[in-house]
């Protein structure tokens, strides 16, 4: 009986290990590393390697500071990220799978829900309430068409 | 071996059980389909809107949660008050409580705007919120009732069943009080904002829970070609009658107190006289189908002999319970908020008018999922464990219950 | 100027000018404080409870059929301006008519930014929150979309986002599955601007909306509240709203 329990435990462990390993198969199979477009400006607000590992921590910290306390420093703001890293083609950080955020997040298979609420493009959207003609003429649209890029 | 796993289920009706599983599974498939569709498109597909923010899913969910805590009463009467008749039914009662609570909570969670953030709901608590307290009560309910069920079903732990049962009893009272208070604490709305909400929900939970229990018990006996002992049936139907009558009493007191306050007259007129669907559901659904007809059935001499008649009464109580939830939850929101007493209000945001609500098939499918989960869990549980009540008739006869 | 910095300058002065200059230094420091309060808070400084943002709405000035505050709000916050039962409205024009004498008023209804906000009390996760300076907000990062706050709000000030959104205003994130409401245009207030509705109302020349600091006795808002009768909507609930009305 004890033997059986040991076997069962082993099988379960192997199963769990297999499930955990699945996401890395893609990388192991030699899928190319994501290619990232270079952001605007000289360099990022922090060292690139540091940002790769810690951007989510910085964003989360900033998110709570801004949202709950009203602290509006710009160094680690998501808006700042978008302003520098919006793709030259799409004008967005997350419109397509080649855009800055998505490139890595698709590769690593990690979901992010920032863009459910946050704008993926820099610049204010013009008014769309009263006069559509006026709205179309706004100079502030980052790209000529919605989600354009072709 | 086979005899052991389908203990109490005569002839091991495997094909029939499979059919039940398929039935429940189909309902669940519909629910999951509705859930993923809503998750993708948003609540725009439902009939819920910025006026009726809680709709059909909440009617099903709150009914299940309230009835879940009520169904545990059968076990409590056995463990806490020492009645043998009910003690024999304690395991079934505990299992049903868990199954229905799981169903109700699942619907509440699936209907959230951000169901993916369930972990947030479990890690961030605002202790001023009665809703947060409810989450704690719900989670604790699983732990405590689960433990209770183990003490009831494990011979070695049987001795603990009385103290654990007592804790479970207190916990379920607190839980239903908190559930009623979700509505009772809404100070701004005429339809809620009443201290009576909490005790009324507790009493209603007694009735709804016992009705569900009787229905399931009848199905189990019928499934096995057994007849419920007349004395057992007589006791339980009388108890249901008492609970139904008490629920009616609380309903009457609730509305009479409202009628005493001039500021509540308009709301009472809405529910009792000219609220359209809500008035109909109140009088026909909650009062007639869920109250008076079951009482007549339960007190009739025919009910003594007929298991089916008692089951019918229980079914009517359950239907009436859903009507009551609809009137309480949706009706309370449909009645316009009165921001400026003495003034007529109008705006582009539906101020001053009765809010419209027509549920879509999506939220109906979502709501049915709760019943589906409770049904599946019950089916599997009674098939695999020993939940059939084992009456000790000599004790019953000697009147020592 | 932050508190430690101030201490430091004070110390330096003390050493430099000796005892006689202490009085002058302290006077200077308090002068700096008053000066600071009149100007916008620096970005690294958190909102403080020394202010409470509020509004006074004069229903007599509010224009018949004028919808400028609503349109300005929609533009500023990226709302589409639709008015279906499932569409968001952060501010709306409310018409009320006295049933006894037929007198009619028009007024904008928005989040009243209560001190004892029912939405904040009932929120299970703490997503519904009041910032130190009295602005009631929804933290969409932890909002689970249960809508209990909408049940609790006496003013129907909140909306639930029923559909996926794109192209939000970068300063005003909003999205499907969360509850939202008027923020007093917190992004503008934090850079010392008026809320969009107030600005639009003034631009139209109605001057029906006055925005300011309720705790600053020198603010135009405080002076107006001191000199004229005003009411809270549902004052019976004792919520101490940040938005007051006059002329009703």
Overall body shape of chain C: globular
Number of beta strands of chain C: 9
Architecture of the largest domain in chain C, CATH level 2? 2-Layer Sandwich
Give me the secondary-structure category of chain C.
alpha+beta
Q: Report how far the terminal alpha carbons of chain C are from each other.
A: 43 Å
Question: Proportion of β residues of chain C?
Answer: 15-25%
Give the SSE string of chain B: HHHHHHHHHHHHHHHEHH
**Structural domain count of chain C:** 2
| Cα end-to-end separation of chain B | 34 Å
Shape of chain B: globular
Structural overview:
The complex is a heterotrimer of chains A (150), B (401) and C (248). Chain A has 150 residues and is mainly alpha-helical. Chain A has a domain at 43-122. Chain A contains 6 helices and no strands. Chain A starts with a helix and ends in a 14-residue tail after the last helix. The model of chain A is unreliable at 128-150 (pLDDT under 50). Chain B has 401 residues and is mostly helical. Chain B has a domain at 189-336. In chain B, helix 3 runs parallel beside helix 16 (361-384), helix 4 (73-79) runs antiparallel to helix 9 (161-184) and helix 8 packs antiparallel against helix 9 (161-184). Chain B starts with a helix and ends with a helix. With 248 residues, chain C is of the alpha+beta class. Chain C has 2 domains: 3-38; 53-246, Alpha-Beta Plaits (2-Layer Sandwich), CATH 3.30.70.20. A 3-stranded mixed sheet of chain C has the order 8-1-9. In chain C, strand 2 and strand 3 form a beta hairpin. The longest helix of chain C has 19 residues, at 20-38. Chain C is globular and about 45 Å long. Chain A binds chain C through residues 63-65, 67-74, 79, 82, 116-125, 127-130, 146-147, and chain C through 41, 43-47, 71, 74-75, 78, 80-81, 129, 131-133, 137, 139-141, 164-171, 173-178, 186, 190-191. Strand 1 (343-347) of chain B pairs antiparallel with strand 2 (91-98) of chain C, so a sheet runs across the interface.
